[in-house]
Amino acid sequence: MKKFLMSLLGALALIGLAVSAAAAQSAAVTIHLNEVQGSGDVGTATLTTVGPNQTRVVLQMGGAMPMEHNHPAHIHQGTCATLDPTPAFALNPVTNGHSDTTVPVALTTLLARRYAINLHESPAAITTYTACGELTTLNAVRTPPGAAGLPPTGKGPELLWGSALLAGLLLTSLGLRLVRGRAA
């Protein structure tokens, strides 16, 4: 009976691992950044949980404005229409259409409150917004790790399926042991 309980606990641990891998899959969202004031600038912001209170923000921009120069980017409280002009979190400037920053706030916090990501024309024209995207669950598209230029986490579907298969085999083995033990 003791071996049975230990095997059952091992199988449950594997199932827990499979569930945590599935949870890791949903720890990224992509937000669409839309043009502001006819700028023609559009893009995406992919936000990924990297720690309990850390979110990686990767901006990919394109459009009418040349993106080879630095374009300041920030996360502001509010919406694109009613924006607090003081940034809540600074992002690395967009250069060559790309920015990658880790901010000290949980992704769940960013999605639960009213925040927006803004791209500015230049450091000299900081009050001129060229793109904006609201961080809401309505504007978010779930993004698997490894998409949008993010590195794979190693906790993808392969781990999920492998763990589930191993847990199923262990549970089947335990069931056969139990049936044989009762028949004897």
In a few lines, what is going on in this structure?
With 184 residues, this protein is of the alpha+beta class. The protein contains three helices and nine strands; from the N terminus they run H-E-E-E-E-E-E-H-E-E-E-H.
Describe this protein with a few key phrases:
Immunoglobulin-like; 2 domains; single chain; 184 residues; alpha+beta; elongated; 9 strands; nine-stranded antiparallel β-sheet
Q: Your description of this structure?
A:
The structure is a single chain. This protein is of the alpha+beta class and 184 residues long. α1 (2-25) packs antiparallel against α3 (157-183). β4 and β5 form a beta hairpin. The model is unreliable at 16-26 and 144-161 (pLDDT under 50). The protein has 3 helices and 9 strands, in the order αββββββαβββα. The protein folds into 2 domains: 2-24 and 157-177; 28-142, Superoxide dismutase, copper/zinc binding domain (Immunoglobulin-like), CATH 2.60.40. Strands 1, 2, 3, 4, 5, 6, 7, 8 and 9 form a 9-stranded antiparallel beta sheet that branches.
In the CATH scheme, what's the topology name of the largest domain?
Immunoglobulin-like
Number of helices: 3
SSE class: alpha+beta
Order of helices and strands: HEEEEEEHEEEH
Strand and helix map with partners:
Blueprint: H1 2-25, E1 28-35, E2 42-51, E3 54-62, E4 71-78, E5 83-94, E6 98-103, H2 107-112, E7 115-120, E8 129-134, E9 140-142, H3 157-183
